[in-house]
Amino acid sequence: MSFLDKIFGGKQEQGETKSFWSIIKSEEDLKIAIDNSYAYKIAIFKHSTSCFISKTVLKNLEKEIEASDKKGAFYFLDLLAFRPISNKIAEDFGIRHESPQLIVFENGEAINNASHQDISLSQIL
């Protein structure tokens, strides 16, 4: 890994997804996530893999999750690979697309969302 990759977050992200993330890759995955929100709160993190700010926010959120004793259902959406799914979330729930963005769902409804430095584990729990 080059020096600049260490500073700016190179391509090391590929395959390094934390174990607590459930990956959303299809509309069916999104439907399952929303269906799960009827049993417990879920959070979808929308991440741009090419954005330094998004990478920084993701790392900070992951640190919060790992340090917490609270359990939750965390879903990860790669915006570059699956932008149509992000668009569907925006359309279906009336939430303007941003990146990075964390959206919390309960009982099939978006109950909270934040972007950039406003993203925190406290929004979920």
Automatic annotation (TrEMBL):
Could you name the domain of life of the organism this protein comes from? Bacteria
Listed InterPro entries: BrxC
Q: What is this protein called?
A: Bacillithiol system redox-active protein YtxJ
Lineage, highest ranks first: Bacteria, Pseudomonadati, Bacteroidota, Flavobacteriia, Flavobacteriales
Write down the NCBIfam families for this protein, in alphabetical order.
B_thiol_YtxJ
